[in-house]
Write a structure and sequence with these properties.
The structure is a homodimer of 469-residue chains. With 469 residues, chain A is mainly alpha-helical. Chain A folds into three domains: 8-150, MgtE N-terminal fold (Alpha Horseshoe); 165-268, CBS-domain (Roll); 298-467, Tetracycline Repressor, domain 2, CATH 1.10.357. Helices cover 66% and strands 6% of the residues of chain A. Chain A has 21 helices and six strands. Chain A has helices at 8-17, 28-39, 43-50, 55-64, 67-77, 91-109, 115-123, 127-135, 139-150, 156-159, 173-182, 209-214, 221-224, 238-248, 268-287, 298-324, 327-332, 335-363, 369-402, 405-435, 440-467; strands at residues 165-167, 193-197, 203-208, 231-233, 252-256, 262-267. In chain A, the strands form two sheets. A three-stranded mixed beta sheet of chain A has the order 1-2-3. In chain A, helix 6 runs parallel beside helix 8, helix 7 (115-123) packs across helix 9 and helix 18 packs antiparallel against helix 21 (440-467). Chain A starts with 7 loop residues before the first helix and ends with a helix. Mean pLDDT of chain A is 86; it is low at 1-21. At the A-B interface, helix 1, helix 4, helix 11, strand 3 and helix 12 of A face helix 1, helix 4, helix 11, strand 3 and helix 12 of B.
Chain lengths: 469, 469
Amino acid sequence: MNDSDHDITATDAEVSQIPAKSLYGLTPKVEAAIMAAVEAGEQRRVRALTAPLHSADMADLLGRISPKKCSQLLRMLGDELDPEAMTYLDEDVLEQVLDIIGPEAIAKALPELDSDDAVTIVEELEPEERDEVLKNLTVQDRVFVEQGLSYPEDSAGRMMQREMIMLPPYWTVGQTVDHLRGVSSHDNQDFYLIMVVDTNFHPIGEINVGRLLRANRPVRLSEIMTVDFRSVPVKMDQEEVAMLFRRYGMVATSVVNEDGRLVGVITLDDIVDVIDEEAEEDLMALAGVSDASIRSSLLETFQGRAGWLLLNLLTAVLASLVIGLFENTLEQVVALAVLMPIVASMGGNAGTQTVTVAVRAIAMQEFSTQSAARFALRELLVGAVNGVLFAIIAAVVSYIWFGDIWISLILGGAMVINLVIAGLTGTLVPLSLVRFGVDPAVASSVFITTITDVVGFFVFLGLAALFLL
Amino acid sequence: MNDSDHDITATDAEVSQIPAKSLYGLTPKVEAAIMAAVEAGEQRRVRALTAPLHSADMADLLGRISPKKCSQLLRMLGDELDPEAMTYLDEDVLEQVLDIIGPEAIAKALPELDSDDAVTIVEELEPEERDEVLKNLTVQDRVFVEQGLSYPEDSAGRMMQREMIMLPPYWTVGQTVDHLRGVSSHDNQDFYLIMVVDTNFHPIGEINVGRLLRANRPVRLSEIMTVDFRSVPVKMDQEEVAMLFRRYGMVATSVVNEDGRLVGVITLDDIVDVIDEEAEEDLMALAGVSDASIRSSLLETFQGRAGWLLLNLLTAVLASLVIGLFENTLEQVVALAVLMPIVASMGGNAGTQTVTVAVRAIAMQEFSTQSAARFALRELLVGAVNGVLFAIIAAVVSYIWFGDIWISLILGGAMVINLVIAGLTGTLVPLSLVRFGVDPAVASSVFITTITDVVGFFVFLGLAALFLL
C-alpha cells in the first residue's frame, strides 16, 4: 500500500486514459524485460524493473517462470522481495520459493505479514525448518503462529487472522476513535469491523467501521453495535465457513473457541480462495484427477492420474466381461459389435450430465428432501424423453446402414433403457454417496459410467441374443 | 441489519453456547413449522415465524419449496416480505417470485435496495412490466436503473452500485467525518471505501474507511489517499473483473466510464457470485450441460442436454463407422469385439483428465507461453508412462482371458498409442480453441472423446487386421 503526497494532475492524466491493459502491472513487455535482465545477470536492472510491481504481480511472475529462473530471480532480488508477494503464491510455487530463500529470510519476512498468512507459510515448512523459523520470531508472533497451527487443517482457526480490534461495549465512539488513532497497527492494515466483547471476551456485537465513523463521539458502542451477527467456531471446516459467507452475504466474521471467546476474524478475501479451491476440487474430482496444478511434477501428475485410470481399467474389463457373455451372438451378427459402443457412449454421457448437476447442487447445499425427489423425478423423465428421441434417430441410422429392422429395434430399445437408467442412477448415486459420507464429486463418475457401460452392453446384446438368433 | 439497545447478559448467555446449528436461522424445524402454518392458512403464524428470519434464510426457503407453496407463502407475507430477500434469490427463483408479487409490489421494493440489486431485479422483468415498475420509481432511482441496464449484460456496469462516497482531495478528514455524519444514507448502508475525485469526477485516490478513522481531523484527504489503485472500465466483462479482484486481493474497486469519470463501485461480495457462476459454467460445460439449475423445468432441462447428446450420437456413429471398416476382422476374431471398448474407454478417461486440468488453468489465466509448452510436454510424458503401465496390465489380463499372445500385444500397443494421443490432444485442443476464441470448457470434451474413440478403435482393429489375419 503506497500512499504519499502526489501530483494530482499527473495521476489525473494517467487515469483519464485508462487503457484496459494498465490494470495489470505485469505486461508481457515488462515480463520479457525482467527475464532478459535475469538472463544477463544484471541485478540492479532486475531490482529496478521489479520494484514498481504489485506484490501480486511479482507472485504471478514467480509462478509463471521455470523453477530454475525463479531461483535466479529470487537470488537477485534478495531482501528486495516484498514478503507480501508470498501471500499471493499458489501452494506449490510457495513451497518452491520457501526452499530457495531459506529459513532465515522466512523468519525475517513473517512479522510483516498478517497472522493468517504467516500460518499458511509456516504450514509449508519441514518440521526442522519450522522450528528454526519459529525461534526467530517474537514471542507474540510465535504464539499466534503456533496456535494457528494447532487447529485442524482447513479449519476456521487456520484461516482466521489474530489481529483485530476488540473493545468493551461501554466505550464511547470518541474514546474508540482516539484509541484507534493511537494504535500503531503494523503496516497500516486495513480493517472493516470492530468487535465488541464482554469481560470474558465473548463477542456481543459488531460495528462496521463506516457506522462508527458516522456516529457522534458521546455515543456508546453498545448503542450502535449490530447484535444480529454470526460467530464461527474455530474448528468449523473452511468449506462450511465459505457457505455461511455466501449464504448471508457476509464481509467478515468473528471466530470463537470452545468457550465462546473471541479468538480471531475471517474476512471475505480469505473466503474467495476457499471458494476457488473448492470449485477446482469438484471439477477435478469429477474428471478423476487428484493434484491438479499445472506446475505439478511429472511424478505427481502421474500419481494424480494413475489411480483413476486403474479403476477405469477394472470397470472397462467388467464391461468387456459382459460383452464376452455374448461372444456367440457377436460371432453370428458382427453388426452388433459395430453398433454396441453407441449405446454405452450415449448412456455414459447422459449419466455424466445428471451426475454433474447433482454434484454441484450438493456442493452448494441446494437440495432439500423435497427438491431432491423432484430432481430425481425430472432427471428420470428427461432420460426417458432423450432416450426415445435418440432411440428413433439411432434406429433410423442403423436401418439405413445395415437394413435390418430387428437390429434397429434392438438398438433403439437398448438406448431408451440405458438413458432412463442413466437419469435414475445419475441422481441416486451422488445422493446415496452423501448419505454414506463419501464426497460425491470423487466417486460418482466412475459409478455412473460403469453402470451405463454394463447396462448398455448387456441390454443391447441380451436383446439381440433373445430376438436375433 | 437490526441494531438496538440490548441486554448484554442475555446475548452473552446465548453466544457462550454457540451450537453450530444456531449459525443458520432456517433449521429444518423452523422450516417445517412455517410450511405447516402455510398449509393451515394461518397468516398471522406464518408472519410471526418468518419475521425473525434473515433475508438470506427467507430467500433460501423460497427456493426450496415448490412453486405452488412459494406462491401461497408470498401471498400470506404480503408487504412483510423484506425486499432484501430478493437479492439472495437464484435467478430462476427470482423470476418466479417477481411473477407472483407483481409490478406494483416490485416498484415499492426497489427503492429500498442498492442500485446494483435493483438492476438485477429489473433485468428479469418482461418489457411491459419493466416500464410499469420504472415509472413508479423516483427520478434518481429510475436514472440509476436505466443507466445500469444500458450497459452490456455481465459487464462491470451491470454489477456496480451507484451509491458511493465521492469527495474532493482538498477536503480535510474533519470535514469528511462531519459530512458523513450528516448524510442520511438509505438504510444505514455499510461502506468501506471513500473515492477521491478531481473536478472532472476522475478518480485520483481511494481511502479505506479504517484509515480515515485513524487520521487526524486537519489532515487533507490527498495526504492519506492511496494512489496505487485500479479503476475498472464500465464495459469490462464480469469474468475479467473477478480475475482482477482475485489477482490483486481487492476488496472494492471504482468503475469509470469511457471518459474516465467515476460512475460506480464494485465490492468483493458481488464478485463472489460471479466466481460461483463461472465455476459452475465451466463444470457444466465440461459435462455437456447448459442451463444447470436443479429448479429448471423439464423442458429447459431437456433442451440443456439434448444438444450435447445429439453431438455425442454423431461422434459415436463416427466411431462405429471406424469399427465397421473392420467388420471382416471382427467376424474372424470375435475376442477383438470384446476387448475394443477397453482401449477407447481408457483413452477417453485419460484425455478428459488432461482437458479438465487445462481448461481450469486457462480459466484461471495460469498459462504463459512457456508454461503451456511445459504443460503439453508433461502431459505427453504422463500419457506415455500411463500408456505403458496400463498396456502391460491390460495385455496380461487379456492373455489370461484369451490365451493369445498376439491379441495381448495388439491391445497393449493400441493402449500406449491412444494414451499418448489423449495426453497430446488433451492439451492442444483446449489451447487451440482459446486461440480461435472458443470457450475451451464448452467444446473440449467432445473433441477429445471423439479423437480417443476413433483412434482407439482404429489402431486396435487396424493392428489386428495387419497382424492377426
